[in-house]
């Protein structure tokens, strides 16, 4: 069975047919005099893998922080799932279905893999403190239900062998995977990945790429990722948006972006 | 489900029916799935197997068809054996970590029509090779992850095959009886399974074993160790290996005991601890690995614990084995040992999952006497056995109470063993194989007309009636001065040091013996960490002068040992080097069962061997490596070669003195 690589037109058509999940319109963000993001508009469509790339300091991570409500942009409109966003807090983003991983692993180092992933389900637990303190009864019932979901994710990401291991003692590549697991435990509609492959070796990168594709394909999760490895970006993503100095310089399918002269300049520098 | 009253006990499907009748509610297979142990009783297993069998039949599987089984140890895959055998077909388990070409060779040679595989990885390999496998019609996979968008014309999900079988059963009541009738027709002289030997040389050969071979050999083994339906075992060795086929399928069905499948290859040690098997098997490297792991971790333990550990292990060394062998031991010693059991041995065994073990076997390679003694002294009934694929495993085994570290025991019931004039071990037994599949020439070379089988191993019987294996018969050679050179014998002595993972020696028709050494990354890495030695790669650590010094002292010790054995004294190691890369099955240097492919290694590192005998002290080499995904790369290194002093034997020095 051979899978034919789709032509450029087919790829574009497929991208256009998709429904918009998140739309950013003329978003600007500044810290005092520093303009991190200037007047950027782009959208993320349902079911796609959307890459955000750019040189260091281009504003990629700020962009993710805006999307999940950690930063409040001074200007611009953000629409998620057809709803215009007013003021936003990260925990609200989670309850709306946006989960993320961090550039530097941000796990609870002393807790086991299992507990870390369970933490990802905290916002979905309904029982109040009284029941949880009592442990038996409805809280336990709830815990079991959530544990089942967590086990499915553990199975999905193939991390059974480190279930009980404190994450602080794990190698970096596995910590990244645990972080992905915790984000997936929130059952997000939109998953933000900040450099999921940074500092990984080739084999770990391949594993991670496969997991990202599987998450997208099997769970139907929309993914926005920041990544510096161009090979990974071009292979994985459906569409790419390129930032440079807080501005958008290109937006399109990987083939288009790759051949865009401005992008080449931003990455390789212009001859003076 | 109605289990018919009688179906004979000649074939495994028939034994399955017997088990469902006698022990219907006892667990037969367990598997840890989503963190919870799921179990299937014998009656449930029979139901699952019947559904699958009928489903396969509806796909066109019939008598004589070959069905490949590729994957890790999963109950669902073990059931395929019985399901296929019930239809009169022949299952062919294949090593799941083989690369696509290797799998394609076996499937092509065996003319396989159906393949039941574990997951996407295996499906991909088969699809990649589909052009070379025109006979392969259907692929059935167990884990649907990642396979949703594949073309499903010849691809089926395991569950849907079973469902198809169930639907047929629901629609036609007579079908169930027909299936049972078909099972009872099975005869003991039918071929039960074809197992491809991984082979240290050349292409793998398909060993045909009949039901009679397996059932009789296994019944004898069960009697030998009193195994019954109460035993528990953990299945974690490759399914394509005869050992696993016997322990986790043949023996399990015959004795009726329960097989437990771990979640994955990485979780084996955790799962073993949870299950605490009563019967287990592990090759020496597993025992070595566990001991290394414990030693490394004890280094980090508190002073008090470490002292207690050292004290009681030392004590166990004195009395543990005597207690295990049922010898006379004073009451005081017994009490002290019991205290040790409570403080050290018990927790230690629990940690390794050995708390309930009644019989543990090791085979496949020689085990280090120190390691062997360690496990026996803490009360683990570890024994050695000797066998091969062609003999349905069991040739010799150590009876309880007669355990010697350097022998492999006495012949099993019904097995005759003799030493040929060439020194080769030969046997004749009910378990001896029918022949190699489509390879009469090889069969003739291995099996004589009156049923004696050449093992290819050189060995001898000691005075106590126990068999001692020296080496592969064809590997035993001579140095130019005429002294005997048994490479494996020397290599094993080297490998008994925890710092040495693998060793390859050369010397046949040469002036002296030289050795390649592979360091053990766990042991040496841990040592490096303690001594503040920084290293970036395996290669760098291997070339470190201090590492060389340690290895040199080990080689010296081996030379000393060899000098004390008159037969082997001439083959002391003159020169050695620490190899810059780990020997790896992906590069073809080891077999899938982790045995060194001597000739291949010799070819691949020919420049290094030349350097040995040209007297060079260092050599620059470029070695090609294969990564896990099949891409090629190279490693470059300058390898240091060191000279060793040899020890003179007592006998030799005596003659020298006389000459003077």
TrEMBL record, chain A:
The lineage of its organism: Bacteria, Pseudomonadati, Pseudomonadota, Alphaproteobacteria, Hyphomicrobiales. It holds the Pfam family BCA_ABC_TP_C. Keywords: ATP-binding, Nucleotide-binding, Transport. InterPro entries: AAA+_ATPase, ABC_AA/LPS_Transport, ABC_transporter-like_ATP-bd, BCA_ABC_TP_C, P-loop_NTPase. GO terms for molecular function: ATP binding. CDD domains: ABC_Mj1267_LivG_branched (cd03219). This is Amino acid/amide ABC transporter ATP-binding protein 1, HAAT family (TC 3.A.1.4.-). The keyword Nucleotide-binding applies.
From TrEMBL, chain B:
Residues 18-437 form the AMP-dependent synthetase/ligase domain. It holds the Pfam family AMP-binding. Signal peptide: none annotated. It comes from the Bacteria. Keywords: ATP-binding, Nucleotide-binding. This is Long-chain acyl-CoA synthetase. The lineage of its organism: Bacteria, Pseudomonadati, Pseudomonadota, Alphaproteobacteria, Hyphomicrobiales.
């Amino acid at each position: 069975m051979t899978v034919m690589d789709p032509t450029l037109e087919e790829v574009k058509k497929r991208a256009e047919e998709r429904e918009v999940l998140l739309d950013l319109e003329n978003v600007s963000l500044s810290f005092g005099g520093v303009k991190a993001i200037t007047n950027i508009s782009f959208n993320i469509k349902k079911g796609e893998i959307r890459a955000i790339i750019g040189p260091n300091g281009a504003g990629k991570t700020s962009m993710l922080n805006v999307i999940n409500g950690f930063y409040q942009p001074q200007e611009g409109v953000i629409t998620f799932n057809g709803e215009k966003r007013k003021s936003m807090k990260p925990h609200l983003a989670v309850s709306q279905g946006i989960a993320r991983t961090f550039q530097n692993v941000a796990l609870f180092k002393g807790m086991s893999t299992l507990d870390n992933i369970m933490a990802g389900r905290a916002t979905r637990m309904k029982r109040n403190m009284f029941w949880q303190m009592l442990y038996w009864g409805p809280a336990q019932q709830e815990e079991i239900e959530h544990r089942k979901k967590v086990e499915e994710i553990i199975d999905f990401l193939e991390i059974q062998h480190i279930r009980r291991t404190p994450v602080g003692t794990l190698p970096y590549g596995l910590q990244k995977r645990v972080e992905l697991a915790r984000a997936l435990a929130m059952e997000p509609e939109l998953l933000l990945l900040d450099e999921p492959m940074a500092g990984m070796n080739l084999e770990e990168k391949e594993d991670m790429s496969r997991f990202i594709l599987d998450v997208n394909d099997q769970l139907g999760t929309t993914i926005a990722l920041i990544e510096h490895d161009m090979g990974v970006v071009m292979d994985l993503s459906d569409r790419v948006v390129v930032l440079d100095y807080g501005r958008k310089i290109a937006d399109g399918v990987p083939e288009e972006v790759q051949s865009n002269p401005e992008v080449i300049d931003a990455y390789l520098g212009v001859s003076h | 489900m109605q289990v018919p009253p009688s179906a004979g006990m000649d074939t495994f499907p028939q034994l399955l029916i017997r088990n469902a009748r006698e022990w219907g509610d006892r667990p037969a297979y367990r598997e840890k799935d989503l963190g919870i142990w799921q179990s299937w009783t014998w009656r449930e297993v029979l139901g699952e197997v019947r559904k699958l069998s009928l489903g396969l039949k509806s796909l066109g599987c019939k008598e004589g068809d070959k069905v490949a089984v590729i994957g890790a140890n999963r109950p669902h895959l073990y059931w395929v054996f019985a399901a296929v055998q019930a239809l009169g077909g022949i299952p062919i388990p294949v090593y799941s970590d083989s690369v696509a070409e290797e799998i394609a060779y076996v499937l092509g040679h065996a003319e396989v029509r159906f393949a039941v595989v574990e997951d996407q990885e295996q499906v991909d390999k088969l699809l990649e090779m589909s052009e070379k496998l025109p006979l392969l019609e259907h692929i059935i996979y167990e884990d649907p992850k990642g396979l949703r968008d594949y073309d499903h014309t010849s691809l089926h999900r395991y569950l849907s095959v079973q469902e198809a079988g169930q639907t047929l059963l629901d629609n036609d009541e007579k079908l169930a009886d027909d299936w049972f009738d078909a099972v009872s027709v099975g005869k003991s002289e039918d071929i039960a399974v074809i197992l491809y030997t991984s082979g240290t040389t050349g292409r793998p050969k398909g060993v045909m074993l009949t039901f009679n071979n397996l059932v009789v050999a296994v019944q004898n083994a069960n009697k030998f160790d009193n195994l019954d339906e109460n035993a528990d075992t953990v299945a974690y060795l490759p399914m394509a290996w005869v050992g696993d086929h016997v322990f986790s399928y043949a023996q399990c069905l015959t004795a009726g005991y329960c097989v437990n499948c771990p979640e994955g290859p990485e979780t084996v040690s955790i799962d073993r601890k949870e299950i605490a098997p009563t019967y287990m098997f592990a090759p020496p490297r597993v025992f070595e690995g566990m001991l290394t792991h414990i030693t490394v971790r004890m280094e980090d333990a508190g002073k008090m614990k470490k002292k207690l550990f050292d004290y009681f292990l030392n004590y166990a060394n004195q009395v543990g084995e005597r207690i295990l062998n049922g010898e006379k031991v004073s009451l005081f010693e017994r009490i002290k040992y019991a205290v040790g059991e409570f403080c050290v041995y018990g927790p230690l065994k629990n940690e390794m999952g050995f708390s309930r073990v009644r019989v543990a076997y090791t085979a496949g390679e020689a085990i280090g006497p120190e390691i062997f003694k360690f496990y026996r002294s803490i009360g683990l009934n570890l024994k050695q056995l000797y066998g091969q694929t062609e003999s349905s495993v069991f040739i010799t085994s150590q009876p309880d109470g007669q355990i010697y570290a350097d022998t492999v025991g006495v012949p099993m019931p019904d097995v005759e063993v003799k030493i040929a004039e060439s020194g080769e071990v030969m046997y004749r037994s009910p378990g001896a194989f029918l022949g190699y599949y489509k390879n009469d020439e090889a069969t003739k070379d291995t099996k004589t007309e009156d049923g004696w089988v050449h093992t290819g191993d050189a060995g001898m019987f000691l005075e106590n009636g126990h068999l001692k294996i020296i080496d592969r018969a064809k590997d035993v050679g001579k140095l130019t001065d005429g002294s005997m050179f048994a490479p494996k014998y020397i290599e094993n002595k080297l490998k008994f040091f925890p710092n040495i993972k693998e060793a390859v020696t050369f010397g046949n028709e040469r002036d002296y013996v030289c050795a390649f050494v592979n360091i053990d990354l766990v042991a040496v890495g841990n040592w490096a960490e303690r001594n503040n030695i920084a290293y970036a790669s395996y290669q760098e650590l291997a070339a470190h002068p201090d590492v060389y010094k340690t290895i040199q002292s080990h080689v010296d010790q081996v030379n000393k040992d060899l000098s004390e054995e008159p037969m082997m004294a001439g083959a002391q190691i003159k020169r050695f080097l620490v190899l810059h890369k780990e020997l790896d099955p992906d590069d073809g240097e080891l077999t899938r069962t982790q045995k060194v492919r001597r000739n291949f290694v010799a070819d691949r590192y020919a420049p290094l061997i030349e350097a040995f005998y040209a007297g060079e002290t260092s050599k620059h080499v470029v070695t090609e490596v294969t990564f896990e995904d099949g891409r090629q790369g190279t490693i470059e290194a300058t390898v240091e070669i060191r000279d060793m002093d040899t020890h003179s034997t007592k006998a030799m020095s005596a003659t020298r003195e006389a000459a003077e």
